Amino acid sequence: MDLPLSLLEMGCSGRCELITHPLPGQPLAPQSTLPHGLPPTNLSLEREVEKQFLQDPAWLPIHDTDFAFQKFLKVTERKVDVDSLLSSNPSPLHSGLSVVRDPTTGMLLDFTEVLLENTGLSAKNSLSLQRQPGPPSESLRGSNTNYPFLPGGMEELTLDQIKTRSEQEEEIDFENNLLKVPPGLKAGMDFTEKGATITKSEVNLMSLLSTLEDIPDLQAEAEQKEDSKAGEETIKLARTNSLEDLGIKDVESSPSPKEAGKEDKSKPKENPEEKKKWAIPVDISSPCEDFYKRIPNPAFKWPFELDTFQKQAVLRLEAHDSVFVAAHTSAGKTVVAEYAIALSQKHMTRTIYTSPIKALSNQKFRDFKNTFGDVGLLTGDVQLSPESSCLIMTTEILRSMLYNGSEVIRDLEWVIFDEVHYINDAERGVVWEEVLIMLPDHVSIILLSATVPNAVEFSEWIGRIKKRHIYVISTMKRPVPLEHYLYTGNSTKTQKEMFLLVDAAGNFLTKGYYTAVDTKKERTSKHAQSFGTKSIPQNTSASQDRAVWLTLLHFLSQRQQTPVVAFTFSRTRCDENARSLDSMDLTTSIEKAEIHSFFQKSLSRLRGGDRQLPQILLMRDLLKRGIAVHHSGILPILKEVIEMLFSKGLVKVLFATETFAMGVNMPARTVVFDSIRKHDGTGFRNLLPGEYIQMAGRAGRRGLDATGTVIILCKSGVHDMADLHAMMMGKPTTLHSQFRLTYTMILNLLRVEALRVTDMMRRSFSESHRDTQAHEKRISQLKQMLASLPPQETEGQLSDILPYYHTVTELQNTREALQQAILESVNGLKALSVGRVVIVNNKQHLNALGVILQVSNDAVNRTFTALIICEKGNEEGDGKGEDNASFPHLYNTALFIPEGPCSHTVQKLKLQDISAITVKTLKVIPDRIIDNYNKRQQPRFRNDPPGQAISTATQELLRLAEANPSGMATLDPVNDLQLKSVDVVEGSMRLRALQDSLRDFNCIHSPTFAEQFARIKERMSVQEELDRLLFLVSDQSLTLLPEYHQRIQVLQSLQYIDSSGAVQLKGRVACQISSHELLLTELLFENVLSPLAPEESAALLSCLVFTQNTQMEPHITNTLKEGIDRVLSVAQRIGQLQRECGIAQTAEEFVGQFKFGLTEVVYCWARGMPFAEIALLTDVQEGTVVRCIQRLDEVLKEVRQAARIVGDSVLGSKMERASLAIRRDIVFTASLYTH
């Protein structure tokens, strides 16, 4: 019998009241006055003890009280063991046992104790692979207090550092002879067959050269040693154990240095200074004949014959080399990845496969799982079998594993980067560069990319930072060639109007273009034909669009050209186009049944209400007719259903945005471009060749179609031919560095003393033009030159020769700048015209007068032909070709007057040779002078007297020189040539001051002045080049260095790091957080999240993951409004601080990146509102909402971790609750690919 009793809990004291007489007709009252249950309380120990010992019948039985009492005493009489509080982990053993054997019989004689070195290495203090593994809980993701493993190619050790490095921390050399020489031993077994070796001397010499070359390569210091020691040095270096890191080959295998010297001299052609090339392009034109001989039992076999480029790649993988494979989509790049995974399973190592997009990771997971079985998946919200030998993950996760020193890295053999051209992505491109720089030495790299023009340059960069060769395999061949058409049809009558524009061989056919234009013209009204078209309207109405699509799809399905992917560059356009095809049905009844059952089965794990979402119902209708839509606004589970149906060939027409082309290999028969313009976030532009190729490449299914069809719709008018040509025939986008500094990167590197941020910057692709090795070589040469120069005398009269040199160089620079200004001005060129008298100073002439005869027309290197007076016998300039290196003309303005009879010469002068323009001009007849002079240069006329014109001019010049022996009046650039710009005025004033100061120097009167000055000049020119190179090699020349200092300043003023650069608590927290680290950390430390309920904090944090603008105003609680204001004020503060420290981003831009459009949606979702109702609250599409909530879950996880580091357990558990509240229903349905 059911009694009408109910207990009502009153308040939170635990008091209850019994309700016995319920009101008639009313159900029983609720169990508690607190609808959300008890607030968390501290356990009262007294109550707990009472409950456990005094009220528990197992403890205090009612009958056998004696036994219970004995038992109770036993519990209470516990021996006090104070020492147990002091227990600690045993320290690592610092000694081990080694065996002493009889050398002849091998009998055991004794055991001795040997001390082990470096037992203290751990993940918290060492970058070495020799360190102890951390706790198992941290083995996968690592911990943010771990050191990363040493990045490959990072250390450039000096000899002293090598000597001081302890023997034990010697890295295992994975490249050379690991199979022959065990680590720690100096020699090993040689397993090669002795009989069959045929020595090739050249090969030997090459290996020798590389040996001799590597040493000076890596240490400039080694070159400082005298040559006499060089021989012994080489051998000594090779024997020190820890030099293995330097990549020096085992020298014992090459001839001894004496023979080496002989061989070297006999073959002087091979210059060991030659620049090392790290990227090696592989020739894929010649077929790979001996493939099966070279790999008799491959790690993986395919059911089809491999292409040449695939065979080449597999051969390189077998040799354990890194490769860069650039090929079109569907050319079969996955083969390379599959072989690497198979190899690592054979070798019992691990492979990591990274992709830029989560959806792509899911699809690859399914494919590889079917092929290999042992495959795991790590994305932001999913973690499946992480112990597998092949892990698939997004690049961001690999980056955090590297920074956090995950143990997975120890077993890693390959990292495969798919879709590497994503490095061009402005937002995320930097992640690829960080990962490539941080990978340790023993990991080989496989890069798969669409075709890029600068594959070799990119690989050269990776090779240089990793100090290993990268083999570049690039193929332009398409397995299924494409044909590109223009389509102008828009009705049943015109449905066949399809014109071939680019044929399968890749030729652009202008004929097709003009026919398309003509047919389009015929349809325009008579008015337009006679008066010219009005400017073509860009947008067409929906009904016109519908007509075009119906016509085209009808035409294609008749010709059996389905499945079709229609790329449309707007999500609304996609939806409208699909909806407008309501009259079209492209599937048979059998296909309809198959689609229906698959659809129902896939959605069976959704809750009932979620299955009735409008988007799902709409898509079900479309799918049954063979039509689908695929863009970021579609629910993820629907997208996966559509992809799977599409790859089965059941979706005949798919309206997709560009993201579909980034995805997995889902080829179609035909690709249609709705338009060739897209909006890229800033404005509309034409498609780039790279984007067009990526999308068009979806056409043509290997093994099914002979050619793929690409159709461009001409809805309003035919596109411009130049645009089409640029888009179809243009080069795809080159890979550019998007490297930028992020606070997470700076903090992660600062917490490890051994890694410097500048090292990371120096190795980035943006700095790849710096060839440090070549510079280092040149620097050591210059240092030697400096040492070998004779010392300079700076006594007595010569004491001020150095300041004199500096004054002279400054004077020359000023004069060159002035002359440049004069030449670029109109008045200057007028003054330097035919007949002008100038003063010439060069190697041959000192203050000689000349007259200009001709001015060249070349504006860049203008030359002046002039007649100059000189001594008899110095016409040729080879007379006493004393280099006037000491610039006597600078302080001595006395004009040149020949001592003997006056001669002359006609020369082409550069601007530098003309040291002044005088105020005088002469009447000359240039043609006659030049002809006469050239005639007398021929041997027959050598001794003829000079012609009339020349002798007159020479006499005039001589007369001028004799009239003004101490110097002539010259044209002043400011007053005479009217050059009034600030630079010129300042320059001419400085010039005058410098010229006056030159007269006061003593050194010019010294008898040995010229010789000493030449010496100083030589020394200083070497010194200047050395300084320039040292600057280029130093960190000071890094482009991002100023920004680095600004960011450090921001971090210091926010107290993330102290003045010495040590990471503080706030910095540790920020390391945990992958995006918007400053804002989140500040919110944590200012307790902004503490007063909020779990669902409110989730709603507030949605501003970090939501990026779109919304039109609707959210309705939210007051606490949330306050929270938003606090977030904005914190963001404003950080933005202003960044601005003050000099970072370019304005405070408004910084605050503007946080959008609160989804706060209400997330709040309601966390409170349990069904998804169907949530979709009505906002104009944001369902798919976007789902993606934001999924990413929000990752942010909540990060905040939870951060709260744990700070020790705020309340916030941690609140985040956990928020996370649980949003992880439900359709938003967190597992991907179909992973089940």
From TrEMBL:
Compartments, record wording: Cytoplasm
Helicase ATP-binding domain mapped to chain residues: 314-470
Alphabetically ordered keywords of this record: ATP-binding, Cytoplasm, Helicase, Hydrolase, Nucleotide-binding, RNA-binding
Main localization category: cytoplasm
Bias (Basic and acidic residues): 259-277
Disordered as annotated region, ranges: 126-146, 246-278
Annotated InterPro entries: Beta-barrel_MTR4, DEAD/DEAH_box_helicase_dom, Helicase_ATP-bd, Helicase_C-like, MTR4-like_stalk, P-loop_NTPase, RNA-DNA_Helicase, SKI2-like
Domain Helicase C-terminal: 585-750
GO MF term (any one): hydrolase activity
CDD domains named among the record's database cross-references: DEXHc_SKIV2L, SF2_C_Ski2
Catalyzed chemical reaction(s): ATP + H2O = ADP + phosphate + H(+)
Tagged with keyword Transcription: no
One of the GO biological process terms: nuclear-transcribed mRNA catabolic process, 3'-5' exonucleolytic nonsense-mediated decay
Transmembrane residue ranges: none
Domain of life: Eukaryota
Protein name: SKI2 subunit of superkiller complex
Organism: Cyprinodon variegatus
